[in-house]
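PROTOCOL LOG
Step 1. Enter all chains and additional molecules of the complex.
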Amino acid sequence: MANSSFLSDLMARVAQAGWRRHARGDASDTFDLFQRLLGDEGEASGLVTAMQALDQFETHSPSEKAQLFHKIAGECSVDDAALADAIAAYRPGDAEAARRIHYTAEPQSLELIRRLNRVPGATARLVNMRADLLGALRDAPSLKGLDADFEHLFASWFNRGFLEIRRIDWHTPADILEKIITYEAVHEINGWDDLRQRVADPDRRLFAFFHPAMPSDPLIFVEVALTRVIPAAIDAIIRSDRDRIDPTDATTAVFYSISNCQKGLRGISFGNFLIKQVVAELQSELPNLKTFVTLSPVPGLRKWAEARPDLLTPGDLAAIDAADGPSFDDARRIAARYLLHARRPQGTAMDPVAHFHLGNGAALHRIHAAADLSANGRAGSWGVMVNYLYDGPSIEANHQAYATAHKITASAEVRKLAD
Amino acid sequence: MANSSFLSDLMARVAQAGWRRHARGDASDTFDLFQRLLGDEGEASGLVTAMQALDQFETHSPSEKAQLFHKIAGECSVDDAALADAIAAYRPGDAEAARRIHYTAEPQSLELIRRLNRVPGATARLVNMRADLLGALRDAPSLKGLDADFEHLFASWFNRGFLEIRRIDWHTPADILEKIITYEAVHEINGWDDLRQRVADPDRRLFAFFHPAMPSDPLIFVEVALTRVIPAAIDAIIRSDRDRIDPTDATTAVFYSISNCQKGLRGISFGNFLIKQVVAELQSELPNLKTFVTLSPVPGLRKWAEARPDLLTPGDLAAIDAADGPSFDDARRIAARYLLHARRPQGTAMDPVAHFHLGNGAALHRIHAAADLSANGRAGSWGVMVNYLYDGPSIEANHQAYATAHKITASAEVRKLAD
Amino acid sequence: MANSSFLSDLMARVAQAGWRRHARGDASDTFDLFQRLLGDEGEASGLVTAMQALDQFETHSPSEKAQLFHKIAGECSVDDAALADAIAAYRPGDAEAARRIHYTAEPQSLELIRRLNRVPGATARLVNMRADLLGALRDAPSLKGLDADFEHLFASWFNRGFLEIRRIDWHTPADILEKIITYEAVHEINGWDDLRQRVADPDRRLFAFFHPAMPSDPLIFVEVALTRVIPAAIDAIIRSDRDRIDPTDATTAVFYSISNCQKGLRGISFGNFLIKQVVAELQSELPNLKTFVTLSPVPGLRKWAEARPDLLTPGDLAAIDAADGPSFDDARRIAARYLLHARRPQGTAMDPVAHFHLGNGAALHRIHAAADLSANGRAGSWGVMVNYLYDGPSIEANHQAYATAHKITASAEVRKLAD
Amino acid sequence: MANSSFLSDLMARVAQAGWRRHARGDASDTFDLFQRLLGDEGEASGLVTAMQALDQFETHSPSEKAQLFHKIAGECSVDDAALADAIAAYRPGDAEAARRIHYTAEPQSLELIRRLNRVPGATARLVNMRADLLGALRDAPSLKGLDADFEHLFASWFNRGFLEIRRIDWHTPADILEKIITYEAVHEINGWDDLRQRVADPDRRLFAFFHPAMPSDPLIFVEVALTRVIPAAIDAIIRSDRDRIDPTDATTAVFYSISNCQKGLRGISFGNFLIKQVVAELQSELPNLKTFVTLSPVPGLRKWAEARPDLLTPGDLAAIDAADGPSFDDARRIAARYLLHARRPQGTAMDPVAHFHLGNGAALHRIHAAADLSANGRAGSWGVMVNYLYDGPSIEANHQAYATAHKITASAEVRKLAD
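Step 2. Run joint prediction.
Step 3. Record the structure below.
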């Protein structure tokens, strides 16, 4: 049974670390494999073709990969004659004819990605393929269409209903924990002892979303500190000699770090669901928790301010120019102006972190100076950090106000600061 | 935190059997929920809307559901103005403009289904929703477009790479085993004792595909008998007083029943992958197995023959008209003619089971009379059954010959029978 | 590596159903294996000897097994000379010398059982071996000592701390559910549909204790009905057309059946721990539950009464002699006298079910006539059943009163009945 | 239901890290709890007593614990009158009377340990209690009897048949991996990166035994290197910049480190079973492996040699006295003499590692100088290490020869060295 033993050989080889060394060929060979995959092959041999294509792709250099992406974008397109027919048959209001256009106009690249995904374990590899594509995209905007195909499929495959939330703790397998260390993007984890505190201390929690096709790869995770007060600085949370508290004594859950793990999933939004589900989990575990709040960076503050925008007063500008940077009070005032008033052309908050939490329905609650004294923190925002408050009864209204009218909900304290 | 406690309430209520009794409203209320879901809501409240919509949908009568499907098909369509613009910008050969048409022409029904799927456990419910749609479709061909949307999304979500194969045996949870009893479509399972034989006897195997979002719902399963000869009748396989053999003594694996479990997944093909993966699993477990063969029904034989098609000789027709039906020899000869020569307009085999196995690369190996003496077997094919042979070295060539030229590979014995 | 490949062969063979057919030899060959096992062998070959010994034992007839038990009891004894020395060195009050006697006097049979247990999966087989021994014991009281050895070891191995409680429901593997059907000793389970009600109806629970070395073999299980009243008859609980209630509406948990599963664990008590742990589980899941009560048979009532004991009045005796048996009132009164006053020589309750629950601290709460109209129920107790009440605040005092003074706690109603 | 809610409270409190702070009392209070536990309590309240006793014990200082052990040893003894009666009834050859002596002479300390073990999670705590006892024992030989009780029970509870083998790799939970780092007793693991090599490199394996009542606590583990040659030095195995090989290319499995993890299990032997089971696992995974060998330290060599025993020649003694220690050749020769000829009074090998492997049936295969240049290695054996060979066909004979006649099987090379 050559064919089926081929399949079982295949499985065996996949299991072995070494087998990919057999993959070879240049970008144009790989493109041939892609085209064969789109042709009319038997499913078993199609599976083998897909596996070879993935293996070979992964041996390519960035420039070979870019070359390949261009070939896909250019050649895996539509049947123009069929599309012309479908267009000709369409009249506005004819839903069925419009649907026919939709399916006729589907670029072959979508089917290519779906067929590659048939290989066991392919999903994670396709996510990496898109990360490569995003790299190539920086120099070649013409790849945007192909990237949209990846994003569209991933949005469907990584649908909220397919994800599972898991608590990460000291019983979690080491390979997953190692990825947490690697992916932490906000407040670096300095090795296993630091990690142990963040996942295993009684007053710490870490939750992540996973997709069943990538069971060892977290998609996004959030780190939570359980406290008795709303914190004003990150050091109090992450330093190793802090006092631990009994989690049943905590009144406040602080989301102090949210990290997306997969570059290749850019544009697929998980954070909003994650925060809300973690709130629900924590409320169920610890009914004493009353306040849900972030301790967040303000990554765009300093860059914005140093461009001397019109929103700043002469006093603000003088503060910025001071030898040691702005004083604590100055920094907080400038931050308040930035967060409340600096906007993108479409009217949303300029700061990406602010945009994320405000869009989720949080309110801008407090602004702290000297809150993040790391090199990063000073460079981004003179050390300023912010609490966004997730206040149940008003989340929906906050979200609506921001989504429809770009209205930012902020505490009186912050509003006063900005004046 | 009203909103997040709402979420946790929600989870709690979902866990409880009873909560759906609160769902109420008629089809037009449900459609309002669908439209709210497509609008610009916060994600948490969108989740609640989706859950209410699903709950309410499930309380409707078939005619209410049909009414609702018509509303979706008619009103969840495209933005005609935007589509006109995209069409205007398109010239043949412009892949990007074609892609823009594709995304602009996407019917809103696709996004509706994706948003409904965000609810935990929704995937199985959407599969059932499509089963309802298929029911409504019989009387209303205009729903075909909406059905194509479901089929398109399901083909993407139930991609081979997302499925897992599991062996079903006597350690399998009872709720899954109960579904096997229910879904067996070919040779009825008469209760738990009969099931026990089919999954727990040493010379029997049952494998199924599952999707991680539906962990207790098999999608398709195949039943295998391990034997020392190619069987000529089904009774030898399923009767309870047969001799069991030591599986390491078996040389032949017989696929004697393949059942699709989910009506709502019609058109999504799993069987080809399942058979090939089961061959690989069995080869790895039992290296003595040399022959992989089916024992399959011929469901269309009698209906076809009784329509007196031109392919039949006067002798065949006389045999059909005989008081007791055709003799064994006559039945086998007529079956051979049917399987080799009766074709659909597009040239493929008329018999659906033949079409499935030939399309997978199997060969038509043997034809047996008096092989299925059940009422079903007599009514469908005068008791005739067939062995299709999955012969490794020739599978790919068989598949290609059938896929491209509708050429049916058959043993000399069968070809001689048909002459 | 003959030896270690021997080990791996061994494992392989164990995995195969068929391999035990190789075991052969009569009881005296098996005894030779037992003696080799007690000798000074290498551990790997000792493991093989143990495996052969178990395999061979299981091929023996009951009379061969009995013969073997006698040989063990007679010949696997102590070193009399060493014991004499240890005794000679002992003076009352010398704890160390007493300990030396203890270890010197240990019968070799204990070590034999421990060595047999080294074989993977042996624990369940040793439990069955003791069941065989209990059978042989009926005709041969001289085996009591050997049985005490088994009981002593099992009490240590099946220590409460090693057991795990599991809820049995419709997600439980079929092989375990099948054992529940088999082992139910009180109210027969009529097949899988009946079982499904008892484990999967929303107002039913079934909990069992397991030992990690016997993961598919329940040791004991209890069936619970969640109700709104204390039930007066078993039929209302087990009949298939009863009304189901929402478990959150239940106020009362009824333990209506407790079954020990392993004959070979006779004398090892699990029921007391199980009931109390199930109460704790149910309280945690369903805080509305306020009353924990049994619905129990009175197996010894009729046999006792028909022996015309002095405790019965002439009226009682006349009632017993009535053509249709005693009236409802008569039966309840006689049952009350039996349960409150009939005692074993050592002063404990004569009825074994009463003794079990009273010893656990329950109170005798209510007595119902016409409560179990099955053949068993009529034959044992004219259909009488009893509620024992597990009332938290008084459990400890009830237990102490019964344990130290054989005082039976009963409700005023029952006490009045008995007068 | 005060009592059962007490039980559930208890469970809840156990789950919480903090609850043990409530334990208090001095050693004599704890002894009172022990005595209450041995008295006639209800089982539920007995469970509470046991839990309090364990909690309180763990708050004690070493000297309080020692005091408590003395009280147990002295006061939890036997019923002298009953023992005298049992002795009086005994005549040599009366197996039943001897058995009665055995059970009558059982020290109460055994029952105390069994009752403490009823508490969920108690087994690990009792193992730690014995570790404390072993500490106290160093200064108080009179505790030996009590220690024998622990050892006796643990030998029964940690019976081979109850253990499970697990491969430890990079998917293993971090809390278990952390224990591997802590417990490695032979070649220190320098943090997580070093650990990662030892468990996750393709040519490395680590296997451990676990007991189901201590699922996160390894009992013993062995580290294996897969190589193409028998190694002559430890550095080639543990250094981080070594070449990794494909495991299917390996011919040799090297057991380079075996560590017992639980001080409290001293005297309970697991290593022999573990090595043999790991050989079986490896043979099944990698059929190319032909040679199973250790790379072992010689911990007693230098201490023995520096005591100038008669077995050494004047040349040996001169070599020992050399300024830089013995030359490579001298060290190997002296080691050969030590390993082959240095014996304990009872005739067994003086070196504990040699005794372990020879007792398991291994042969003394090769002796390497400059094989362990760590401080430990130089201090113990001038850097000498040894290969013991597990050669299948001769294991059983080797074991017998050593067990019965203290005969050490060695290669011709080693024997020649020693002459």
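Step 4. Note key features.
Chain D touches chain A through 18 residues (CB under 8 Å).
Residues 324 and 382 of chain D are 10 Å apart (CA to CA).
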